[in-house]
Specification:
homodimer, 196 residues, Rossmann fold, alpha/beta
Chain lengths: 196, 196
């Protein structure tokens, strides 16, 4: 059975893919807002993991909608949540099983129980979160066991999460993204698998 | 790293153990109220899975406390929840990683986010629920892939969950357990692994 995993190149989505690959034929999927966006570091991460990788493009207007939400609320959480739901919805048109790297300790993006139920019922898919039942300490230990990663802050490290592209678009429009996003957001990028 | 899994012999705790065994040295642990209680079917299930199995005995008085809670509330949920928490707590004295077969769709036993945090902080353990991120449909499909099971109702199928022993104690005291417990509670028992 195929499973389509939402993939940023970071440690959580990579670990979710590795764990899931024991029981599913995993394919990695990275969503971008702009059709021209290239993500060589994410592509290398996918290559290191050894799973097929697909770049998928969000429908036109979603980036503007996300930016409007951020401008009006003053913080990115609702917009990130909305974009994540949209990605899962899109992905469910390609796979019967969709998955992501949501951890138990995550706050955003995190679908509520009702949202998960509704997603599965309306889209007739299974939404799997392999890391949901693992506390941070165990995720860290599994990451160390399976993955080689580098860490940095958003902006210094290329990865395929939504935040980077939204931040860039704010900058391109001469707006200060810094007033919406928390100053320090630790990111990770997978550069290899460990040999175990 | 060792992980102590709460084990009833049923499909959920068995599947949790199988999934976890890819990354941890799994040991199965079945709690009983009465020191003399024997569970040959659960022992055979543990043998079929191939992991070490330990029977652990709850402290004296816990069964009476659970029965009092059930009598006073009129339903078993709070008591089952209390007993489950107690089992996790006990288990954390033996393992740094404790685990169970809680699924996303479960209502009871299900620890809240705060309870999980508190359990981990006070007992300095990791509490892992490998099935938490899997919807029922995927759990069923993984069970079919890995396990041979038989199904039945509580009372007709021996397994190591708390309900059976509590029900028996009500009966032994001449009380009707049926007025507290829902009439139909589907149970499962693992009888083998599939060959895949």
């Amino acid at each position: 059975m195929k499973a389509g995993v939402l993939f940023s190149g970071g440690k959580d989505s990579s670990l979710a893919a590795v764990l899931l690959s024991r029981d599913y034929a995993v394919e990695l999927n990275t969503f971008v807002f702009g059709p021209g966006r290239i993500l060589p570091a994410v592509e290398r991460a996918a290559l290191a993991l050894g799973f097929p990788w697909h770049v998928r493009i969000f429908g036109e207007g979603l980036l503007a909608r996300a930016m409007d939400m951020i401008r009006s609320s003053g913080y990115p959480n609702d917009a990130i949540q909305m974009v994540h739901r949209y990605a899962l919805k899109e992905l469910s048109t390609h796979y019967r099983v969709v998955a992501d790297g949501t951890r138990f300790d995550d706050r955003v993006p995190m679908l509520s129980r009702d949202e998960v139920q509704s997603l599965q019922d309306t889209l007739r898919c299974s939404y799997v979160r392999p890391l949901l039942g693992f506390p941070r300490r165990e995720v860290d230990s599994l990451v160390a066991r399976h993955l080689q990663i580098i860490c940095g802050e958003t902006g210094n490290l290329e990865n395929g999460d939504y935040e980077a592209e939204i931040r860039e678009e704010f900058r391109a429009r001469g707006e200060d993204a810094g007033k919406y996003f928390p100053p320090l957001h630790e990111q990770s990028l997978v550069i290899g698998m460990t040999s175990t």
